[in-house]
Amino acid sequence: MPKIALGTSREATQPDCLQALVIEFVTTFLFVFAGVGSAMATEKLGADALVGLFAVAVAHALVVATMISAGHISGGHLNPAVTLGLLVGGHITLFRSILYWIDQLLASSLACYLLYYLSGGQATPVHTLASGVGYAQGVIWEIVLTFSLLFSVYATMVDPKKGAINGLGPTLVGFIVGANILAGGAFSAASMNPARSFGPALVSGNWTDHWVYWVGPLIGGGFAGFMYETFFINRSHVPLPQDDQESH
């Protein structure tokens, strides 16, 4: 069973932690900027629903794959649910996780405020449940989609037995993000990421259904991390925070 490392406040002054926080902020900012920007572009161009969904899925797949690779110093989490999944697996301390969560929310907020300014005041599209989708259904959608994301992160990047796919992890994780948006975008919006949902909600002031995009992803991400680390990875030591250098 994985053991959660608490960490200490001294981590905040360590050069490697400070560097990781800067990288995590930059990569999360660029991820949200491209992701939300693609949704805004499809609305501005008047794309039909199917074309818009496909465009947003492709944009997210591409930017996720690139930012995970670019964020190797911090692990390229981009997502509080990913950070939680890795925390549960013992790959990052609780203290550093809290710093990452703050970092991710600030980066998402800044990206959305900048998009609002650059677009001349165009509304930032928020994640809400589709008509006919209830709260329970929305939460389950987000649990399943985020579980698949974290399961892929562990299987393709964290697992020391990943073998022939070593180095392909960021691309493969980008694929699952795009596929999940195509599968769930029309129902729960397929957030999988509380930070990705937080920035648009803050800028627009629209918090409709917002709690769903915290509860679902955090449950799905945490459970995936616990399950994979418990049942599929055998370790002879407790992983340290710096072990997580190839994690989304």
Give a quick summary of the entry.
This protein is mostly helical and about 250 residues long. The protein is built from 8 helices and no strands. Helix 1 runs parallel beside helix 4 (about 95-120).
Task: Provide mean pLDDT, rounded.
Answer: 92
Uncertain segments of ≥5 residues (pLDDT<50)? 237-248
Number of helices: 8
Which structural category fits the helices and strands? mainly alpha
The CATH topology turns out to be Glycerol uptake facilitator protein
Beta-strand content estimate: under 5%
CATH level-two architecture: Up-down Bundle
Shape: globular
Instruction: Compute the CA-based radius of gyration.
Output: 17 Å
Ends apart, CA distance between termini: 21 Å
What does this structure look like?
The structure is a single chain. The protein has 248 residues and is mainly α. It has one domain: Glycerol uptake facilitator protein, CATH 1.20.1080. 64% of the residues lie in helices and 0% in strands. It has 8 helices and no strands. Helix 1 runs antiparallel to helix 2, helix 1 packs parallel to helix 4 and helix 3 runs antiparallel to helix 4. The longest helix is centred in the N-terminal third of the chain and has 31 residues. 48% of the residues are buried. The C terminus is likely disordered. It is a multi-pass membrane protein. It comes from Acacia crassicarpa. InterPro entries: Aquaporin-like, Aquaporin_transptr, MIP, MIP_CS.
